[in-house]
Design brief:
The protein is an alpha+beta fold. It is about 30% helix and about 25% strand. It binds adenosine-5'-diphosphate (ADP) and the ligand N[C@@H](CCOP(=O)(O)O)C(=O)O.
Amino acid sequence: MATAMTPLSLTVACMDIRDLPPSKLRSFIIRVPATSANIGPGFDVVGLSLSLHLTLTVTVEEPDAASPARPPKITHSGEGADEVPLDAYKNLTTRVALYVLRCHGIAKFPANLTIHCDNEIPFGRGLGSSGAAVIAGVLLGNELGELNLPVERLLDFALMVERHPDNVTAALVGGFVGSYLRELDQAATEAASVPLSEVLPEYPPDAGEEWGLNPPQPPLGIGHFVRFGWSDSIKALAIIPRFELSTAKARGVLPQEYSRKDLVFNLQRLAVLTTALAQNPPDPELIYEAMKDRVHQPYRKTLIPGLPEVTNNITPSTHPGLLGICLSGAGPTILALATGGFEAIAEDARAIFRTQGIEVDWKVLEIAGGSVVQQNL
Ligand SMILES: Nc1ncnc2c1ncn2[C@@H]1O[C@H](COP(=O)(O)OP(=O)(O)O)[C@@H](O)[C@H]1O
Ligand SMILES: N[C@@H](CCOP(=O)(O)O)C(=O)O
């Protein structure tokens, strides 16, 4: 079977599956990277795509006498296999896809849809598993509905579900990315603030297979982003504790208000960090200080025993090669950016976590490209 692999931007701009010859079987693959959000001071602002992937292999077969119409079938391997729902009306990815379809006048999944999800991104560890699932769902809806949506519109749909832009933007476009949510007028603010339960309703099991076509539509142009430079010499070491922490819980411990001193502390560091990570060679003293944070990490240490000890005791002077160290996303994973010395950094972090009774796994990751959609022709 021949394949055409296309980066997302080109897929959206050039590929139109309606141009493909008619076929009984349509098949495509969606590949979405993991992400690490915040990178210290950039809470809800910056994200970095990483080389662990969620991959969906999708086929749609025209029903005929040999294969009569049936509901969607989902299988899942890898991370989350023991907990992810395989019912298309309960699974996060397919619920997002159905939301995108319903917003475009398509009330149900196509008949004879089969999706295999292979997932390398651990759940609830601060590596963007839910952001990847949401982006996979938006891309799935876009492909199934043959909608050919531009990147900006794909992002609007993702932001109706995952309401901070850092993970989803980096997962969609790839690289080291900064983003903001546009200030919306009152009507658009209301449209973008509808409860998540209206965007992704609980589908009752006995309500048939067609759903109303009046879901809340995303306002146009909610999210805006820019990709920063990144020094090729920097890799991401993910030190992953063996316990899950939901992002919702880790957001629940954050205060509603901050002091000017703490906000200025973060703004100063974020401004320096976005350029410092592109310099060659990268400057460890500059980056280590620029990856400190006072907006989320101090509050999350109650949920992640050992966090301050790891970030304070593992430094560029104790660990040559280290550039900076922070919580990855909402945690509990620790992200160390480094040019070398990965094993010493990881093993010393492991020893610190062990004093708290926590075991870890670690991986050296590359900075990944954005999501891709690959048509099997
Ligand atoms: N590939 C996936 N398919 C379906 N649901 C997923 C997938 N990945 C993540 N999820 C859902 O998202 C939850 C984790 O989200 P969250 O708490 O935001 O942590 P993370 O930091 O991993 O994004 C999982 O428990 C699961 O419910
Ligand atoms: N900015 C968010 C990022 C959450 O990332 P995740 O990978 O933990 O879902 C936050 O810090 O809450």
